[in-house]
Amino acid sequence: MMKPKNGSHPIMPLRSRNPAANFCMFPKVKSAGCSPCEAPVYLNVYDLTNANGYVYWAGFGIFHSGVEVYGVEYAFGAHDYPTSGVFEVEPRRCPGFKFRKSIFMGITCLDPAQLREFIERQSGSYNGDTYHLIFKNCNHFCEDICYKLTGNRMPKWVNRLARIGIISHMCFIELKDLLGLAFLGFLSIHVI
Question: Where does the record place the PPPDE domain (predicted)?
Answer without folding.
Answer: 39-168
